[in-house]
Amino acid sequence: MNDIQTIIRLAARGDGITADGRFVAGAAVGDEIHFEDGKPVIVPGPGHVVPVCRHVPECGGCQLQHITDQAYCAFVLDRLVRVLGPMMPADVAPVALSPPRSRRRIAIRAVRRGGQLLLGFNSESSHRIIDLQQCEVMLPELFALVAPLRALLHETLAEGQGAGLTLTASDTGIDLLVANIHAESLDEIQRLTDFARAHGLARLSVEGAQGVETVYEAQTPQLMMGGVRVSLPPAPFLQATVEGEAALVAAVTAATAGARVVADLFCGLGTFALPLSRAARVMAVDAAGPAVASLAGAARAAGRPLDTVHRDLFRRPLTPDELKPFDAVVFDPPRAGAEAQVKMLATSAVPRIIGVSCNPSTFGRDARRLADAGWAIEKLWPVAQFRWSSHVELVALFTRR
Questions:
Q1: Structure confidence at residue 383 (pLDDT)
Q2: Neighbours of 98 (CB within 10 A)
Q3: Does 195 share its domain with 336?
Q4: DSSP state, 86?
């Protein structure tokens, strides 16, 4: 018996949903689904395209490579509408979509098993590693290291041993952090040093039980942020793409225009604090000690009006009294959101609050608390820098109703 349905929207994780509520992986809005003996057969519609990567759909990095850019941007907006509901503002900027092969920071895994070295991303909803032969999201210079790293780790890892790798493309070269490998004997250190030198790495560090240790450093990895050169600690948090960062910074700059004193909470290396310090006095707060130290040194060297505070905002959020001096507050928390800090912001006298989020679900929770306290989202900037994934980011300007 044939059962024919049409995909009417995409779920939060990218699966197609039929009118009767069934989920179909790999489907796009407008696809016709023939259920034959309960199994879906996809007849592609106008929003469906052939994925450009051979690893789709096994690789968990690109759930939505099978849909057009227009359909992808529609998914991003629909995701925000469904999370925010009546809080969604009328003023919404176009989706800022990062191009293919633009990811400048990636985390991949390796394991040696059965005499083979597998290196790549996890498969969807699994710990199985997809051995990368192609990648359409990471920068070409990062992907060029995949094959050499596979050879290096084949010699380095024992049977059954795994390792994690974080690669970051900086202005001064690639920074590589490898977790769970030994770098104690002269032979082990020499092998890693030879690899780093042969492939022109800026820095190679290893992470073990004693923490992170730099094995090789030809140049300190650095990035320009707001016209200031910032030195990067190993495996720093960065916005995923240059284009995505530019879109987020432009939105935050627009939302804080005219503010003379600004707080940047969960500031990291200064993605927003440094650009904002061109026109305002900035207090930048974060619990990540190495990032705060790098930001403080960079701001001091550049003579920027920027003060740093090393503080855990989850345990010790800024209170309404502490927030009084600021014309605007920017908060950019991890995926868990900023529940404790938002409670303080909600009852503060700050004229403007700018939320930056990489998780619409926790942002929705924090936005509802602000809405309940009399705040409204005046403008929203959606950003899709994790191209083809279900990962959605945004900037939102809150003002008092």
A1: 98
A2: 23
A3: no
A4: G
Residue at a domain's end among 222, 246, 264: 222
Beta strands in 194-260 (DSSP E): 203-208, 211-217, 222-225, 228-231
pLDDT tens digits, one per residue of 181-191:
988 889 999 99
Q: Which of 53, 59, 267, 358 is catalytic?
A: 358
- The answer to whether residue 229 is domain-embedded is no
- φ, ψ of residue 87 in degrees (nearest 5): -80, -10
Q: Is the pLDDT of residue 389 over 70?
A: yes
- List residues forming the annotated binding site: 239, 266, 286, 332
The pLDDT value recorded for residue 124 is 73
Task: Give yes or no: residues 195 and 263 share one domain.
Answer: no
The reply to whether 394 and 247 lie within a common domain is: yes
Going by C-beta distance under 8 Å and a sequence separation of 6 or more, which residues neighbour residue 23?
Answer: 11, 15, 16, 17
Task: Calculate mean pLDDT across residues 336-353.
Answer: 97
Phi, psi of 286 (to 5 degrees): -165, 160
Do 363 and 282 have their domain in common? yes
Same domain flag for 113 and 215: yes
pLDDT(100) > 80:
yes
Helix, strand counts (H, E) of the chain: 10, 21
Binding-site positions for S-adenosyl-L-methionine read 239, 266, 286, 332
In 3-state terms the chain splits into helix, strand, coil percentages (rounded to 5) of 25, 30, 40
Residues 160, 264: Cα–Cα separation, whole Å? 44
Q: Are residues 312 and 251 in the same domain?
A: yes
CATH number where 316 lies: 3.40.50.150
Q: How many C-beta neighbours within 10 Å does residue 209 have?
A: 5
Residue 62 resides in a domain: no
Percent of the chain whose pLDDT exceeds 90: 90
Mean pLDDT of the chain: 95
In 3D space, the residue among 171, 276, 291 whose CA is nearest the CA of residue 222 turns out to be 171
CATH number, domain containing residue 116: 2.40.50.1070
233 within some domain: no
Choose the weakest-confidence range: 100-114, 119-133, 267-281, 367-381. Answer: 119-133
Query: Is 358 an annotated catalytic residue?
Result: yes
Handedness of CA 36, 40, 43, 46 (dihedral sign): positive
Domain carrying residue 17: 2-48
Contact between 204 and 183 under an 8 Å Cβ cutoff? The reply is no
